Amino acid sequence: MKKYFIILGVLQVITAIGAIPAGIGYLIDTTGAAMGVSVEMLANSPLSSFLIPGLFLVIIHGLGNIVLAVFSFRKMPVAGISSLGMGIVLCLWIIIQVYWIGLISFLQPLFLIVGIIETIVGRILRKRNHENAG
Fold first, then answer.
1. Which domain range does residue 14 map to?
2. Cα–Cα distance between 108 and 69 in angstroms, integer?
3. Using CA atoms, how far apart are residues 63 and 15, in angstroms rounded to an integer?
4. What DSSP state is assigned to residue 106?
5. DSSP 31
6. What is the DSSP letter of 46?
7. 36 φ/ψ sector (left φ>0, alpha ψ -120 to 50, else beta)
């Protein structure tokens, strides 16, 4: 079971490392120009700037995954259910992003796979934690 916590922790650190700099980049310049994109990319979405995506990247995918990595590396019982939830959030984030702006980077399918793995491993840990409690 130790390997599942390590897998989760590593995936969560990788996600945070990817999300925080990108989110900060979008917060510094909400037009996206500093990140090599433009607001025209958001034409099919309800957004008019990269402010909300920047905040979401920093707070949810960045700081949230740092907290979850601590849970995972410390093998805390809450790691399973919280990782299951965060994995679902990451998958939805990528699916919605591709729906609104299209498939524009190899990082989108890569982080979808990360979200799927996080969801599966989180479910395994949640189930094992639930069995051990009962």
1. 2-133
2. 21
3. 10
4. T
5. T
6. S
7. left
Three-state DSSP class for 44?
coil
Residues 6+ apart with CB under 8 A from 77: 129
What is the full per-residue pLDDT of the chain (134 aa) written as tens digits?
A: 899 999 999 999 999 999 999 999 999 999 999 999 999 999 999 999 999 999 999 999 999 999 999 999 999 999 999 999 999 999 999 999 999 999 999 999 999 999 999 999 999 999 887 677 66
Q: What is the pTM of this model?
A: 0.92
Exposed, middle or buried: residue 103 (CB in 10 Å: 0-12, 13-18, 19+)? Answer: exposed
| Residue 103 phi, psi (nearest 5) | -85, 105
- Of how many residues is the chain composed? 134
Number of folded domains that form the chain: 1
> In this structure, are residues 97 and 108 in contact, taking their beta carbons and an 8 Å threshold?
yes
